[in-house]
Amino acid sequence: MENQNKMHSEAVLTNSDLSEQIKAVTKDSHVRAENTELMLSYQRGQINLPQYKLLLCSLYEIYQALEEELDRNSEHPCVTPIYFPSELARLESLKRDLEFFYGKDWKEMLVVPAATKRYAHRLRQIGKDNPEYLVAHAYTRYLGDLSGGQVLGRITQKSLGLKSGEEGLAFFSFPGVSSPNRFKQLYRGRMNGIELTEEERTGVLGEAVLAFEFNIEVFDGLQKMLSETENDNNTLQRHATHSKLDNGVREVAKSLQIPASLNNAFPLFRMILGLCVALATVGMGIYVF
Ligand code: HEM
């Protein structure tokens, strides 16, 4: 690890291209992002519809902030060279995907973790105070979407059983980019042409690490929301099973003409009766199969 870090700092010191420096300083962060639980489920091909829908909500908030700030600062000398709205903008695609999965009222159904709000807030803040930092965020999201993002698109399509070119996958498709690799080369060249003071360059590199950090926090926040929903569903299911058993007990008590007051008043009596109902149900199941 120490060696790796040394190599990164050497790359930063010896190569003055912003695109190389940014890649070097975010290398470890990229590995960490790839290893978040959400990205690991992706790589195992285990992405499911609730996960994908929730991810789309967060991506919408993030790209809305990013693209509004890029649009507002499109004349800024550090933004103009990397401003490619017709090739890269994702907001309209995200709107289409969200409408496909959530229906016409999708805007009212957006749910995002606090980390997404923090990320969007940071984007708006730098759009106002340090527009030169936008290059770090645009690089992190768009070059990521054009790299690993393309693989993730195919995994989403397969995992959700969607057909290629079908609705719901617009986010991954870049009709204005015929060759992602060539486009990435062009983008890197544009990044390298941006004039930055040493202080600004250091700021941009720090912001890129922060951009990855924001993404990692969003993925962790999403995973937490998903596991909480799963736990809630399990609890609901357990309640449903209990109340089924309760209904069963009530039915048996009724058919044996046991007074409701006795059944309600003695928990032990209810428990024994409940156990009998459960055993009878299992017995019936064994008999049927
Ligand atoms: C399952 C997760 C991921 C996989 C499998 C993956 C894979 C890749 C691959 C194969 C490349 C190309 C590397 C190269 O050309 O040298 C790449 C580049 C990149 N990825 Fe990822 N990635 C993942 C997640 C992410 C995430 C979450 C982000 C940021 C939010 C991200 C941002 C980037 C960026 C900015 C690049 C361009 C690097 C450069 O050429 O400077 N990736 N990724």
From TrEMBL:
**Any single Gene Ontology cellular-component annotation:** endoplasmic reticulum
Question: What SUPFAM superfamilies does its record include?
Answer: Heme oxygenase-like
Localization, per the record, is:
Endoplasmic reticulum
One Pfam family it belongs to: Heme_oxygenase
Q: Which residues cross the membrane?
A: 268-288
Protein origin, superkingdom: Eukaryota
InterPro entries in UniProt: Haem_Oase, Haem_Oase-like, Haem_Oase-like_multi-hlx, Haem_oxygenase_CS
| Protein name (Swiss-Prot/TrEMBL) | Heme oxygenase
